Amino acid sequence: MGSELAQMLKEDGHEVFGIRRDVSGLDSKIRGIEGDLAEPKTLGPAPKRVECAVYSVSADEGSEHAYRRAYVDGLAGFLEWLANEGQRPKRLVMVSSTSVYGQRRGEHIDEDSPTHPTQFRGETLLAAEGLAAASGISTVVIRFGGIYGPGRESLVGRARDGQLELRDAEHFTNRIHRDDAAGVLRHLLFHPSPAPLYLGVDNEPAEEAQLFRWLTKELGVDEPWLRTAEATSQDHRTVGSKRCSNRLLRESGYAFRYPTFREGYGELMRLRSVR
């Protein structure tokens, strides 16, 4: 997502810098700054003028320690580095997640809904959001739902391989295509008067069974099968069922390229078939 955003910004004529521990993973058109965000002393000099900043990272793996190092220690290090380099961006856009909401009964969620994370991932992200808000830099937080698209195609592969299982109860999920996620970040970077918080999801909270059946039909493969109650109770990956609204984001002027999973996954499957 960050790389896609950088490409968009380059096409718009901006000079773009990217921080990575290994800058060889950056596109050649992006100016690399090598170092570990959680250890700001390892970072090289900052650009002469940082106008805007985007904090978009991922944990090395799924442990609590890795999440804290990426989102809290890393953000703290990034802010320290900016301050030490005499840089104060006019805006910081931070990528967070809908995992900060603990609701799991299909509740309708918007930016005013209470956050009650039930796992360390959501708790860690909330802590990072607080750190950004206290930085003194004008901050916009975007809580993304599940991001899919090029490089994030596992659901299509599972559908093709007959590995999708239906729950025995209604379960709502929230998604956004990678290109829209990057587009949202670009939109909020230059919005004249953004809100401090947005939900980054597409127009339709998708009921999981409806999504799975649509995918298998489009692929021309067998329908997903119903998992047993025992399998459901043993599935520790189960996350909360909620219906997130992107109303505030749409009202800010952002127009989705892929408004629902149908357009997004439809394009993704078309590209897979072409390859």
Question: Can you lay out the helices and strands and say which pair or pack?
Answer:
Layout: H1 2-11, E1 17-20, E2 31-34, E3 52-55, H2 64-84, E4 91-97, E5 107-109, H3 120-133, E6 139-144, E7 146-148, H4 154-160, E8 165-166, E9 172-173, E10 175-177, H5 178-189, E11 197-200, E12 206-207, H6 208-219, E13 225-226, H7 229-234, E14 242-244, H8 247-251, H9 261-274
Parallel strand pairs: 1-2, 3-4, 4-6, 5-14, 6-11, 7-10, 8-13
Antiparallel strand pairs: 9-12
Helix pairs in contact: 1-5, 2-3, 6-9
Structure notes:
The chain has 275 residues and is an alpha/beta fold. The protein contains nine helices and 14 strands. The strands form six sheets. Strands 3-4-6-11 form a four-stranded parallel sheet, with helices on both faces. It has a two-stranded parallel ribbon with strand order 1-2. Helix 1 packs across helix 5 and helix 6 runs parallel beside helix 9.
